[in-house]
Amino acid sequence: MTFRCLPRERKKINMDKPLAKYLDHTLLKPDATEDQVTRVIAEAKHYHFASVCINPYWVKLTHQELVGTDVNACTVIGFPLGATTTASKVAESQQALADGADELDMVLNIGELKAGHKEAVQADIKAVAEAAHAGHGLLKVIIEAVLLTDEEKVTACQLAEAAGADYVKTSTGFASGGATVHDVALMRQTVGDRLGVKAAGGIHTKADALAMIKAGASRIGASASVAIVTTED
């Protein structure tokens, strides 16, 4: 299979920014309440994080609370397994964008990737990428690296790039492991400066976050964002 980038012009990823702007302040727990979501939104506004990442049900509220701020509304698609149909991922994406999402974090079809069905994986990502960009959104593709070999991680990143994604992301945080420095470095080596790399899962401290950034992460997904930015050097 020949990988190629879509003709859409890609912007180089800015790696020189405040630590807070690397952080997607995340609350994806299934039992998250409105009060908890509202608190996370307030924290993101106070610390000027890159985004608030919440489940699709909370997108409309999050968007309303973030209007006029420098914080984006981010949500997840096909989460956390990636095994929903392409049509359902597209519909979920369109609804999230209509509700005010700026960024979509989509789980690719992990089983199809491991089976070597590259065309199906790329087509799945491409359909969501087209929906995201039609709605002026940004797409991050979660590859769930802990379930993949290094060869499969590289293939996943290549497919995401060929399909028109804006970022590749290590993990959902719901599998058996999260981000590692090795995986972030491998993903950055694969996509160069053409795509962003988001490290997520198990990042609890400022030292963790800085190690991921040093390895090549341009975005960090964390529920511990406040602790990360308030820890003294």
Characterise the protein shown here.
The structure is a single chain. With 233 residues, this protein is α/β, with parallel strands linked by helices. It has a single domain, classed as TIM Barrel, CATH 3.20.20. The chain is 42% helix and 16% strand. Strands 1-2-3-4-5-6-7-8 form an eight-stranded parallel barrel, surrounded by seven helices. Helix 1 (34-47) links the parallel strand 1 (23-27) and strand 2 (51-54). Helix 1 packs parallel to helix 2 (59-66) and helix 3 (86-98) packs parallel to helix 5. The relative contact order is 0.15.
Distance from N terminus to C terminus (CA atoms, Å) equals 47 Å
What is the total number of structural domains? Answer: 1
Cα shape: globular
Which sequence of strands runs across the widest sheet?
1-2-3-4-5-6-7-8
Low-pLDDT windows of residues: 1-14
What percent of residues adopt helix (DSSP H or I)?
40-55%
Number of helices, counting only DSSP H or I runs of 4 residues or more: 9
Rg (C-alpha, Å): 16 Å
Structural class: alpha/beta
CATH architectural designation? Alpha-Beta Barrel
Mean pLDDT across the residues is 94
Largest sheet: 8 strands, parallel, barrel
CATH fold name, please?
TIM Barrel
What is the CATH C-level name? Alpha Beta
Which helices and strands occur, and which strands form pairs?
Blueprint (H helix, E strand, L loop, with lengths): L22 E5 L6 H14 L3 E4 L4 H8 L5 E6 L8 H13 L4 E5 L2 H5 L3 H17 L3 E5 L7 H14 L3 E3 L11 H11 L4 E5 L5 H10 L3 E4 L2 H6 L3
Parallel strand pairs: 1-2, 1-8, 2-3, 3-4, 4-5, 5-6, 6-7, 7-8
Helix pairs in contact: 1-2, 3-5, 5-6, 6-7
